[in-house]
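U., I forgot to send this yesterday:
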Amino acid sequence: MHQAPPERTGARREQHPWPALGWTTLYVLAAGALQRSIPYPWDNDTAYHAAVGRLMREHGLLHAFPWTPFSLLSDRYADKELLFHLLFVPVAGLDWVVASQIIGTLAGAALLSSLYFVLRREGVRYAGLWALAPLLSSVIFIYRFVLVRPHLLSIALALVFLWAAVRGRYIVLAALSALYPWVYVAFWQLPCLLLIAAETARFLSEGRASWKPAAIAAAGITAGVAVHPDTANLLAVNWIHMADVLFRNSWMGQQGFDLGAELEPLPVAAWAGGLGASVLMTVFAAWGAWKARRTDIVLMAFSLASLGFCVLTARSGRFVEYFVPFSVAAAALASRLIAWRFFSPAVIGASAVLTLGMGAGFFAGLTQRPNEMPADVASYLRQQIPEGAQIFTPDWDHTGWLLLTLPDRRFMVALDPTLFYRKDPERYRLWYRICHEAQPDAADAIRRYFGARYVLGLHIAQNNELFYQLSRDPGVKKMLYSDSWLLFDLGQTARPEEPHGQLPSSAGTPIQR
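Result:
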């Protein structure tokens, strides 16, 4: 037994604003409670985004990033998440953790509200409850949800973008398309994937495809890029992130670039345990979409998008954040085919029980990350390292912390090491060798080729080789040795030399092009 999916008969029910206001308030409270339960952000990128917000508050829109002079961004800067960073500007004067919690609450609530908007417009029963289902069906998604990063806004845009493309809401589609270049690095790739899902669904449902959604989306994206403060650089950074960072360095396994684990495929056990409910929802939605393929194009589109993101999660864990809410949207739309009134609460409740049962340890650990930049260490570093100093850092993913702790100092690279390589391949190779191989002349090379007097890094295993070599050098002074950070003073330096033709033998350096 099933009921016809409501396009005209029921899709407009409950249009009074009070239910929407009530559910939106609940989403704000839910997102805020999750943010407040985490005393210190789990994601190192959160500190970087907060730092950029502070820099924009002090200097206005940024057209260069001199705080990381060895990165391509130093003189060819493009803020690929400009709108997200603008949200930080009003709260940049607060403690950065509090500011991040505020922005994380707003962005998380925007994601849940966007899902609710689509389901409510499509007349889904229990739309407000379904919009909470992403938080009740996957511990992996919860982790991605509490990271204060631009992907939260991108998912919110993506959900409404697909709905608008299918339903022919062209003004909405144009507006969202124009926003994408200000929100997320994959500002044309993700819309392209969603348009493929929309037009495939249209073809399967109606036997035809439409050129209008693609044309309107292309016009909107073009307009958004054109009015971006750094149009040319934005296009260049987008290409680098897609061609080099994602495809070559991550998916093709290019050695010599530490990009973090999130771009890697999920372990099979984690995929099955963390995404099992989402996979079942996708299967159910696919059944419903095929059954109602002639009458419910929206269900077909969201089912195809869910299937696509499901496949991509097998290649990269980054797509979990899209797969889970799209699987929920598809399952919610398919629930209209089931006559049993309590089907939706039963499915959501079962998912919640499964998630809570499997994620008890995860939830406990989520609230226990310590502050890795204690106040006494931060104060000491500010006293010892003068403003304007060049600091040699052995990694890239902690630069955000250092930008917040040591304003007006300079560091090696932020965001991604690929941007370092694209600016100066030879110097990047040297930096990588110094940080990952036993180099007896490390201090001299840092002084000569990077113009850095100070070496600062986390007290972690991957930095042990470098710190051991520096500790043995009689000309190096160890200034700080704590449980979290180590600081070395290499002595006076001059302007860094160009390394071309002067490097030690590069044998063994695993970076090739």
